[in-house]
Amino acid sequence: MSERIGKKAVFSIKPNPAYVAAQWDEDFLRKYTADLFRNSRGNITEIVLKDTHTLQNHPERLARWVEICREVKATV
Description:
two-stranded parallel sheet; mainly alpha
């Protein structure tokens, strides 16, 4: 799908929220996010994290995940 969309539309990625909300593992998140960016190379891309009903009392995970996304995007 990514190849067909190109820059004609926004390629919206909705990652599994459990990776941020429940199964926090920064090494895994880096690899997972790098794969998301690689698979959307050449597209206008947005990442939408939905359904984060709980963060297991760790709301700072959201800010850290944004940092990870920015770091990974710079290297992919």
